[in-house]
Every structure is written in C-alpha cells, then in structure tokens.
Amino acid sequence: MFSIASLTKSLTAVGIMKLVEDGKLTLETPISTCFPDFMPDYSKDITIQHLLNNSSGMEANIGRTDDNGNGLMPEKTLITLDELLEKFKSSKLKFKPGTGYDYNNFGYLLLANVIEKVSGQLYADFMQQAIFKPAGMKNTAITSFKSLNQKAQPYLGLGMDKFKKFNAPFHPSWLKGAADMNSTTVDLFKFMQALDNGTLLKSESMNKLYTSTQAMGVNEMASGLGWVIDKKGDEKWIYNNGLLPGYASVMGSLPEKNIEIIILSNATSVNPVVDEFQGEVTFVPEITDKIISLVQGKIVENLPIPTKIINNSIVNVTKEYQLDNEHSLLIKKEGNTYSLETTGKEPWSIFTYTFSRNATENDAFSETALFFANAMSTQNFEGLINYANDQMKGFLGTEEGLGQLKGMWANFLQHAGKFTSYNIYKIEGDEVKNVHIRFHFETVDIGIVLSINADHKIQGMFMDDSVKTIHINTAKLIPINKNEFFINGHQNGGMQDLKIIISNTGLILTDGSINFKAEVINP
C-alpha cells in the first residue's frame, strides 16, 4: 500500500455525500451545527460545501502557512480535535466564505469529524462500511498508530545522486480526513468504478461532486467537491493529486473517453512540507500529462538513447550562441565529452531560461507591468493607482492595500535574501493579458502575475510559482544524433529534460513544448 496523501480528500468528500443522500445533513449545513464553539463569529457562515471546495476563507490550516504566519505545521505527537479547535479559537477569515479559493487541509479534518458526529461512528469505521467495503477495496486503510503491513517505504532523493529512506515526521492525526489514507492503484480503480456505476452514490450526487463550484484563479481550473475540474486539450479532466514527503499520487478521469488514470509513487525529491527545491518535487504530473497525450492520440517523445559520435560526423558545435541580448550559451568539447555553459546576465540557468528571459513587449501592457515591478522593487508606490482599474484602486489606492504589498516585500527579503533584479518572462492572452513577472532574490525567484485589462489597467494579481535560485551553470550534453544533444534534467536536481538541436547558423533549445532560438556569435 502507498500513502495516497490528498487523494484522501476525494474519498472523504464521497463519505460526506453519502450522509447528504441519507438526509443527515446538507451541503448548506453551517459548521457551527457541529462545532458551536469554533470561531463563533464566523462558523455560522461557513458551510459543508465551503469546506469541500476550499472556499471557507479560514486562516486556520494545517501543513500550510500563509505570509502572516497563520496555520500550523503537523508534529510527531498525536493531536485531538479539541486541541486543534483550542489552538485555532482566535483565528479569523481571510475572505468571505464562498468568494475565493484557498487550499485548506484543516477543512477536511473538520469534515472527517463531521462524519463522526453525524454518523455516530468513528471516521475509519464509517469509511470502511460506507465506501471501502461496497467498492471492494480490500487493501485500503486509514493510517493508524500501528504500522501497516506491506506499506511502500517512502524515499527522498528523486533527481539527486541517491535515494534515502524517509520516516514520516508527523502523526497521522494531524491530517485526518485530508491525507491519512493508504491504498493501491487497484483499489482506487475499484473506487472510481464504483462511482461510475452508481454503487456508491446516485447520479445527482455525482454531478454535484464533479461540478465546478469555485474558481481556483488558474486558467480554467475550478474546484468541485473534493475534486479539481480542469481541461486537457478540449476534454474535461476531473482529478485530484496528493503530495507528502516520499509520496506522490494522482487519480483522475477523462469522462468523455471513459478512461481513468491512477499513479502512486513512493519517491519525491525532497520533503515538500519544509524544504525549498529548485526542480520538480515529483514527476507524477509530467507522467500524467504524457499518458493523457497518448490516449488523446498525440505523439509523446521517448527518452533519447545516447549514440556514439564518430569523428567529423557532427557539425561544428563548439561555438557561442546568443539567446537574447542578456543570455548566451557556450558549447565546449573535451575529448569526446560535450558540455554547455551559460554566460551573460546573472543569475540564470539553462533549466530556468523561461523565467530569466525578457518577454517585454513595446506596448501599454508591458508599461503597466514594468511600473508595478519597479514600484514593488523600490517600494515607491507613487502613481501606481493610475495603473489600476476601479476595483483595484480600492486596494492599490489605500494605506491598507499598500501596507499588504510592503509586508509582502518585507517577507520576500526575510526569506529569499537580497533582491537583485526583475523581468517579464511571459505574456499571454488577447484583450485581457496575464503578465508574468519574476523577481530575482539571492536564494529564491518569486513570481507575481498581473491581470491587465483592455484599458491597460491592473484588474487583479496573484502569486506565481516560486523556485529556488538556480546556480547550475554547466550541464553535460549527451549526443543522440549528429546534430542533437540531450540534457538530463533528472540528474540536475530534478529539472525538466532539455534538448538542443544545432545547425551551422544557430541552435534551438527546447523542453518539448517551448522552443527558444539562438544564433551563432561571430560565425
């Protein structure tokens, strides 16, 4: 068995819907019904549905902390619900319930306890009786205080020189209902089949689980009830994924093709709860995307096979190539070994060029984004209100709003070190554009995305992925053809694999989805 991490939430959601079908509660039931002393000023406004789709707005959280330090990290000792409610008794709301999305593990711990209060059974007993047994899931269990038989050993070290065994750093009681289940791919397939054929829930309940109820702020992704509703190409993709130290998982469905995909892994690069990492923590999402591409009839490139290069059979590649005015590549040869070095503006790495490149366009959208970036980096916000739409003026034009930006920047400096530079690395959209800005600090690159409307005014902003500042400036090139080289990202800290295709006049650097051209300097 594998820890399925947050896939647990999807099963907990089905347990809640069983109680809804039985008439024992509704999606509109306020949590104050079950927890009258918890957040008394707010709990009456938070419903079961808000917990299911992560729209409660609660500061209270487990395994995640925000910029203001709200939330608790799990510990090795057992924790009870009463102890957690006491720790969070003074917590407040980040936003009005149902008006935003904020991933919350504590919400699912509350849901597990709702199941206990409403059903009169222990959470583990209810799930066994209502979900596992009817679905035929004989190798699925809630993590208990005893070791489970035949549980896969978790490992850290994916993308590094070696793996090491890892023992869970926290007690499972901290993630009850959120990430405390263990299962197998066969059992999870049985679970999804039982959902599809009506064994577990009626079609009306299934529609509620799989219907978008809260936008997540990322492209077309939305939250259902315990599931994420997304698209792969033109097809609906309904899924959930999980991540714990040493475990990664995904469970999803392409309903139009009647195909289910389940992947369980017992290896991650680092401990994702506490460690920052420059590359991929897990390759499960990448593997999932490739499987979906295959079932959609698309071509998926295989891992290249190194080939022996015969003297004079390869074009002369030992040259310098210019990607843009600030970034160049130098290819060297020592004996029969080829290597690539990055030169130009620091810091940047071949693996993060997409973040380092300058995608600024000579238009009003870029002007707005650059004004914001300069205002943030200098902490001089004079005139910024002129670049905001009416709604954002209520934020960027107030002391409270600017105070939040100043606090955010202070937090960046505290955790990421000295600020060095910024750049616009991606612009997407037509009338409304999402402009991706990368702020480079001493140890971490931090991204902010601005949504800019057709009048070139900021109408929204959200945090982009942050990655550890990369210092990998040299990479080994593996010949796979007379003019093609492969760069193994896995062996360079779990980064994305790359390929270089060389001609007499330049090269193409590609990760399989984006191509960057570079011209020979002084051919």
Could you walk me through the main structural features you see in this protein, from its secondary elements to its overall organization?
With 523 residues, the chain is an alpha+beta fold. The chain is built from twelve helices and 25 strands. The strands form five sheets. Strands 13-14-15-21-22-23-24-25 form an eight-stranded antiparallel barrel. A six-stranded antiparallel beta sheet has the order 6-7-8-9-10-11, with helices on both faces. The longest helix has 18 residues.
Short note summarizing the structure:
The protein has 523 residues and is of the alpha+beta class. It is built from 12 helices and 25 strands.
Mean pLDDT: 87
Overall, the morphology is globular
The fraction of residues assigned to DSSP E strands is 25-35%
Helix content: 10-25%
DSSP strand count = 25
CATH class of the largest domain: Alpha Beta
Cα end-to-end separation: 58 Å
Considering the chains and any ligands shown, give keywords for the structure:
Nuclear Transport Factor 2, Chain: A, 6-stranded antiparallel β-sheet, alpha+beta, 3 domains, 8-stranded antiparallel β-barrel, 523 residues, Beta-lactamase, 25 strands
